[in-house]
Design brief:
Layout (H helix, E strand, L loop, with lengths): L7 H13 L12 H22 L1 H6 L2 H14 L10 H11 L11 H16 L9 H5 L5 E4 L3 E6 L20 E7 L5 E5 L2 H13 L2 E2 H11 L5 H18 L2 E3 L8
Antiparallel strand pairs: 1-5, 1-6, 2-3, 3-4
Helix pairs in contact: 1-2, 2-4, 5-6, 8-9, 9-10
């Protein structure tokens, strides 16, 4: 009886398994090993290049061997759910959050730093625009109904992720959380701004509410944080609202035009 032909699908699975992890999977039967190594190198280098561009700080702080071991582990284990190269960074973040086995070489801030770097890339391609500067918000900020930009994301981290790099690699979390807002400005440039916990909570409320009276929002923050003088905090917060408005982090809803 003639030998049963191996299905094309089985060959595909064997090909993909070898490309992902050649140390644990043999090449498809009958293929030239030298050719398979070329395919493996091309595929792996492509993914490594995208991750290096998306997470340059992580690559810069890891040794060369640790970086390539991290990329290889992602490449071998993770099953991406997107066909788009621009979303590989999000897949890598998902891997770190849900699939990465703890490794003694991993810095304690690895996941947070990856999230911060991913945010910059995600905002660069996110839909939406920064609101136009509002003259009303500049002149009387507490009297406006305000909202947060579609392309402004408030974040809180245990580590000062925006300062991490070669020569500055903390081993323990900060005593206080690092609060940031990462945003895309009116010139379509991604920026970050370190903010106080008060401003962070204000932006959180805007995310939750959609839009709210600026004064009501400030008073709510003051009450939540236990300020003894909520009205004083609201008045002090007026300058913060102006600064956020100038950067395009928040906008104001113009009142309807009066009909004659």
């Amino acid at each position: 009886m003639p030998e049963k032909t191996v299905s094309f699908q089985q060959i595909q699975y064997a090909f993909a398994a070898y490309i992902r992890d050649p140390n644990r999977n043999p090449p498809p039967h009958g293929t030239a090993l030298a050719r398979m190594r070329v395919y493996r190198e091309l595929f792996f280098n492509n993914i490594e290049n995208f991750l290096a561009n998306g997470f340059p700080v992580i690559k810069s702080i890891l040794s060369k061997s640790d970086w390539f071991a991290l990329v290889q582990d992602f490449y071998a284990k993770h099953r991406s759910k997107t066909p788009y190269f621009a979303e590989i960074a999000e897949e890598f973040l998902d891997y770190l959050q849900n699939e990465r086995d703890p490794c003694f070489n991993d810095p304690p801030y690895l996941l947070e730093l990856a999230h911060y770097e991913w945010t910059e890339l995600a905002l660069a391609i996110a839909e939406g625009e920064a609101p136009q500067e509002s003259a009303a918000l500049m002149s009387a900020p507490l009297e406006q109904t305000i909202y947060i930009s579609e392309v402004a994301w408030p974040m809180a981290y245990r580590f000062p992720v925006h300062k991490i790099g070669p020569g500055h690699e903390p081993t323990d979390p900060s005593e206080q959380p690092t609060c940031l807002v990462v945003y895309r400005n009116r010139e379509d440039t991604v920026k970050f701004l370190e903010i106080s916990p008060v401003t962070y909570r204000l932006l959180q409320i805007l995310e939750e509410e959609g839009s709210i009276s600026a004064k009501d929002c400030m008073l709510r923050v003051a009450k939540e944080l236990g300020y003894s003088d909520p009205e004083g905090l609201a008045s002090h917060g007026a300058e913060t609202l102006r600064a956020l408005g100038k950067r395009g982090i928040i906008g104001a809803i113009d009142p309807p035009a009066c009909s004659v």
